[in-house]
Write a structure and sequence with these properties.
Layout lengths: L5 H7 L3 H15 L5 H13 L9 H13 L4 H8 L5 H6 L10
């Protein structure tokens, strides 16, 4: 006896009905169950892009959000990280990274 589920066997066939039904099933399953993720994004945007900070560019807001979402460090921990033995802050200040800059 095969352990492959029946739906896998059905969709593995190359028949027209199976491929069309697979498109419908894929579309239906791609719809999110809730809008919690979108609400979370808008909630975070309200924290960043407020009436007092409305002149920020989209790029700056994007960079700020990426840093906030991807780093779990406090401000002091991040400061220690960039000033640490790798010298990330010193490397970021160097001119060598800019190929267009005259030397």
């Amino acid at each position: 006896p095969s352990t492959t589920p029946v739906h896998q066997l059905f969709f593995s066939k190359k028949e027209k009905a199976a491929t069309e039904l697979l498109k419908v099933v894929s579309f239906v399953l791609s719809v999110p169950v809730s809008n919690a993720y979108a609400e979370r994004v808008f909630s975070h945007m309200e924290d960043v892009w407020s009436d007092k900070r409305n002149r920020m560019s989209v790029g700056l807001v994007k960079a700020e959000r990426q840093i906030r979402f991807n780093f779990q460090l406090s401000c002091l921990e991040f400061k220690a990280f960039i000033e640490g033995p790798q010298g990330l802050l010193q490397v970021a200040k160097r001119v060598e990274k800019y190929t267009w800059k005259e030397r």
